[in-house]
Amino acid sequence: MFCKLFGYTKQAYYKQCSNFKDASGNEKQALAAVVQLRRQLPRLGTRKMHFLLKEEFSCKQLKIGRDKLFRLLRREGLLISKRKKYTVTTFSKHWMHKYPNKIKDIHLNRPEQLWVADITYLATREGNAYLHLITDAYSKQVMGYELCADLEAASSLKALTMALKNRQYPHQQLIHHSDRGLQYCSKLYVNELKRNGIQISMTENGDPYENAIAERMNGILKDEFGLGEELEDHQQAAKLTHQGVNYYNSLRPHLSCDKPTKKPQAFL
Question: What CA–CA distance (Å, rounded) separates 227 from 218?
């Protein structure tokens, strides 16, 4: 009676019911895959998530495109909101020699052409911990890091030592770019760069955008890997940092690299 009333055949009605059931089942499978991935990358953006799950969707014959995934996650309240927080960890008003910015017009075309360095803080109930990072600007690979309770040049040097150990192309020309902080201007740090034939470049105007890749790296680790939360203690901070860098280097895709996944480094 109702089919006749709305001008539908019984076959069309049951086909529509079947399609609705299939679509609902597909969405449930897609959400299950999202939840599984979020256990490793809890704050991964939807575009990168679709890139990682695209092959799984295809194998399961799930017709879930990027826009449909956005709509599905929005409906389920699973979209990630961005956090904005900036804390100064740099003191650049000192007497030590500062180097000019050599990367203003640089064109990146290979790994280990440019390394960017920066320090960010992790809040814990025991007090702040400081993460010293060195990232390859082309591959976005974390080359070296050191988590400690201080801002000493010796701690930054430990991150540099790890990066040098993981260097794959030691005979290629390399530039090290950083802010004008005491750590990077210190004789201890500068001498190690010169000893390894690495050119030195620094920001000039105190603008975070002059070291944007390093600042972005800090934000990713804090926003996507839980390092931006208040942590229990330094031990938990160390564990999450190790896990976050590992996942970042080996699993997380990057838009500027056409979203390839990366191989884990030996130190991880």
Answer: 9
Distance from the Cα of residue 105 to its chain's centroid: 24
- Following DSSP, what letter does each residue of 144-211 receive, concatenated? EEEEES---HHHHHHHHHHHHHT-S-TTS--EEEE-S-HHHHSHHHHHHHHHTT-EEEE-SS--GGGG
- Which residues 6+ apart lie within 8 Å of 200 measured at CB? 99, 102, 175, 176, 190, 193, 194
| HSE-CB for 253 with a 13 A CA cutoff | 15
3-state class of 118 per DSSP? strand
> pLDDT of 202-249, one tens digit each?
998 766 678 888 888 888 888 888 898 889 999 999 999 999 999 999
- Distance of alpha carbon 121 from the chain centroid: 16
Q: CA separation (Å) from 183 to 96, 97, 117, 124, 159?
A: 10, 12, 11, 23, 12
Which DSSP symbol is given to 231? Answer: B
| 23-33 pLDDT per residue, tens | 566 778 887 88
Closest CA to 168 of 139, 199, 202: 139
Q: How many CB atoms lie within 10 A of CB 219?
A: 17
Contacts of 223 (CB under 8 A, 6+ apart): 43, 82, 83
Q: Beta-carbon neighbour count of residue 65 at 10 Å?
A: 11
Average pLDDT over the chain reads 81
Q: Alpha-carbon distance 3 to 249, whole Å?
A: 57
Rounded Cα–Cα distance for residues 25 and 14 (Å): 16
Query: What are the strands of the beta sheet with 175-178, ordered from one edge?
Result: 142-148, 129-136, 114-122, 175-178, 199-202
Quick one: tokens of 37? 């991935």
